[in-house]
Amino acid sequence: MAAATQIVRNNPNSLFYLPDELLVQVVSHLAGDAQTLCSLARVSRFFQIEAEKHIYTNIELLSTNHLHAIIEAFTRRFDRVAYVETLKILYRFHGGLGATADERAVFNSCVGGMKALRSWEIESPYDNYKWDEGGDEWVLKDMEKFRAHLEAASLEVAAGSLTRRGDVGLSKLERRMSTAFARKIVIVIHTHGVSDDFWNLGDFHCLFRHPSLRYLHVSCLALPLDLPELEPYAKTTPLTELVFDECELEPRSLGRILATPKRLKHLTLGENLCNINEGRGANPRLTRAPEAALAALSHVAHALETLVHYDPACIINMNYHKALPIPGAGMRDFHSLKTLRVDMCSFLHRSIALSHTQAPPNLHTLQIRNPRPRIIRFWHSAASTNDDFFEHLPPHDPYTYLASLKTLEFVQGATSEMPMAKTLHITEDEALRERHKTGYKLFKHGINLKVTLEATWRTGLIPPFLHGEPLPELVCMYNAQEIGFNRTWAPAHEAELRAYELEYAQTSAWLRGKETPEAEDYEDGRVVAEKAAKPTEFPETDQLTDSDIIWCRGKVGRSLNALWERMRRADPDDDPRAFTVTIESDEDDEWDDAFDEDDEDLAEWMDAEEGDVEYVLAEELMGPDGHADEMFWEAQAQALLAAAAAAVAQEDDVTEHEMDDGLD
């Protein structure tokens, strides 16, 4: 760095006349603007130190190509290591990765000096079936070095008491909240074994002895049968959230782990559900030993607020529809537990949720999940006993006995390629009407029913989800409270015309990009009157009108189109032209006789594709100004209205003729 200009601090017109505390505040306002901070660092030694505190705050290594530069920066001024607060080691795999072992070793040794480190994410470059191409070196060298740093910062037993080292690297790992209260992940580890996709805990039990760690997320971890090493550390750590993602869990060692936090509030028990191969089968260890699993969970009964369990029992068809009675009080001591999210086959559903005498006394939200139908590695189809919550729901009666329950949510997993994730399947008329009847019965018990899609972009994406992969999203497809149970009924012919009017309005609003149609989209103004009236002015019913069905279908369709487009944009491997606007039709639908078969344009449009779904590139619906070309679509909607009106008029004529008894 060039010699800094001589600074005159007694000049009242100079920035340097200000106290150092104000200058530090000025620099802090530039945090995030790396280019400006680098320029400021060249002004003086004072500004160099203050600017570098922000320049080196966040380090994200997406490629080993960046290692040389960051190592050189640390070598020139080792104090920079102490400024790192967020470290993400996310190297991408490449053929020359083995040649970077020495550089990685140098950088890994620097991690121990990161005294301000608060958030650390590790992702093996050999994940996704690359562990046979050098993954052993990553496990035996890189991960072992990381473990040594964690061990140095963890609690230890000395002279019969617990001690912690002073100001050492990684000793400040914790969960911080930003001004927007967004979660800051602390430690996330996605790695593997020496020659396998799962890694053994081994001496990494130091993760559960860290004196300040509050959030931990580990994936593809295989726990041993027991962990007696953790016994002296019961109720000593501040861990508040723990996520096991696609892990092989053992009840006894799980109990040792759950005994270490003082107040664990959020727990995810994700067993190995998706990483099943010819050498590693599905093994629902917790559901096969429900009493031992509950004994392990009892260590966090006093503080646990959210509990999640993903269970592979459904893969091996353990007759998971039936209740699984177990002796004892169950989870009656879990007074803080408000939210329970479980797979339908989980012992927490079959033994706890289905038994009101063993369920948590203050449970507010119960989410029951059906995992998406799966395709195992090597493209063998997996036998699936999954129900489809969009076709029919399980019996609702057992849930009405849960006195504190306010929300019952059924979550169906699916990918964008699956038929069950299509609008017409989700909103099929009879299934939707039955769903609403169930919602009404639960409503009479003070429970709101939701049916949600757990959407994954592609079939090839399975947990654990790595950096850059689109994460699954929960999208509500049915909300009984939103649809409501107060509505008025019209004569059949008026309801039919009203349905066609609503379909026209939905089509027009969709083309204009609106979330809901405006009042002017309706010709007769009935919708305006309905909007003005209070819901309670209408009678209560569990029935849905045709208009309600069309409204639900339009809402679901818009939500899905927005969802798939959002996921497509987040997927770096996807073709941007692959996103399509889908026009779905039910092959069992019969077209109304009122349609004019001589209308060649309309017939040509309807017969454009003979399959269930016609795919149209989004660009084909766009005019020269970049907006949707409404002319064709408006014409079709108007044709639907005209045909409906003609059918209604014809029906009225027939009715009058039939009522004429000839006495006039």
Automatic annotation (TrEMBL):
SUPFAM superfamilies, per the entry: F-box domain, L domain-like
Residue ranges occupied by any F-box domain in the UniProt entry: 17-51
Pfam families for this protein: F-box-like
Protein name: F-box domain-containing protein
